[in-house]
Design brief:
The complex is a heterodimer.
Chain A lengths: L24 H15 L5 H9 L3 H6 L2 H15 L5 H15 L1
Chain B lengths: L21 H17 L5 H12 L3 H13 L1 H9 L1 H7 L9 E6 L4 E6 L8 H4 L4 H4 L1 H9 L1 H6 L10 E6 L4 E6 L11 H5 L4 H5 L13
Parallel strand pairs in B: 1-4, 2-3
Classes of the chains: A mainly alpha, B alpha/beta.
Chain lengths: 100, 215
């Protein structure tokens, strides 16, 4: 059984959407934080892939590209005990409140 | 085999562009950044530098490599045998644990790059991959119907040309060295680089040159 990420040759694939969206600041940030953690030796590309590939298949399909990266980076930071889910929840809620 | 694969029907956003809940995810990555900086795991400088690193990379780097390979056979040999070292000769720093492999198009073989599992791409040279490269449909079709996939980009490959599909991995990233188009003998290296688009470096397009003289 292959995972949801193993898309080579999967059935039902349609035309390729060639449109490009402009990279948003939070996507640049997701990219930078993820790679900066790799460069510090705090996680690896393989761990990042494993974290993405372990996402619930429905969630994997629903999330945008950098949303999967964020989910993976969060998972690895929590697994490694660097951050807790609770403090991320709390800080994210605080930031969302400030943006309103 | 086919039943083991997941059905893609019903995809509208192709798993690339921000979803309807992007705002929530944006808040989470900002929260993660703030917390990592507060705890001294990362500095704001680390993050800023990494953003600048990615912004400084673009397909223009790949075009420079290709144009130099077209005019300098020695460089071409080095590019094909050790892409990272050849890139450094032109001031393109792709150092790090990832390997880069340049594959050469010939009259007999056309190369196409994909990452079926995710989005692996020679980012250290070309920058971030385009959205379509990360799309579920490209990842799926590039390996089982590459000619049809290329046709959607306007590239028609004759039956006499073999299509070699390279599936990138986290450890090995590919880029294509396209063929120099005929009629470009008198062009400068810079002009040649102008013919090489990002899509040529992935293999969904080839450099084209039509000698048009005006006036």
């Amino acid at each position: 059984m292959t995972g949801v990420h193993d898309l080579g040759g999967s059935s039902g694939a349609g035309p390729i959407d060639k449109s490009q969206h402009e990279t948003e600041d939070w996507e640049r940030l997701a990219d930078a934080v993820t790679v900066a953690l790799d460069k510090k030796g705090l996680k690896t590309t393989d761990e990042h892939r494993r974290a993405i590939e372990s996402l619930d298949p429905e969630r994997y399909k629903k999330l945008g590209y950098y949303e999967r990266w964020i989910a993976a980076t969060e998972l690895l930071l929590v697994e490694k005990g660097i951050l807790t889910r609770e403090e991320i929840d709390e800080k994210a809620a605080e930031l969302e409140e400030n943006w309103r | 085999m086919s039943e083991a694969h997941h059905d893609l029907e019903g995809h509208d956003h192709e798993g690339v562009k921000p979803s309807a809940e992007a705002g929530r995810h944006a808040a989470r990555i900002r929260a993660i950044e703030v917390l990592l900086v507060e705890k001294g795991v990362l500095t704001e400088e680390d993050v800023r530098r990494q953003i600048e690193y990615m912004e400084a990379r673009s397909p223009a780097n790949g075009a420079k490599l290709v144009a130099r390979a077209w005019v300098d056979p020695g460089f071409k040999a080095r590019l094909l045998s050790d892409t990272k070292a050849a890139a450094l000769e032109l001031g393109i720093d792709a150092s790090g644990p990832v390997e880069f492999v340049t594959v050469e198009n010939t009259p007999e073989v056309h190369n196409l790059i994909v990452c079926t599992l995710c989005s692996c791409y020679p980012r250290a040279i070309l920058g971030r991959p385009p959205d379509w490269y990360k799309s579920f449909n490209y990842r799926s079709r590039a390996v089982n119907e590459p000619r049809a996939a290329m046709r959607e980009f306007g590239l028609e490959m004759g039956d006499d040309v073999e299509v070699a599909v390279h599936d990138s991995s986290a450890d090995v990233r590919y880029l294509v060295l396209p063929m120099r188009p005929p009629g470009t003998e008198g062009m400068s290296e810079e002009e040649l680089a102008g013919l090489v688009t990002r899509d040529c470096l992935i293999g969904v397009s080839v450099p084209r040159f039509e000698a048009v003289r005006t006036g």
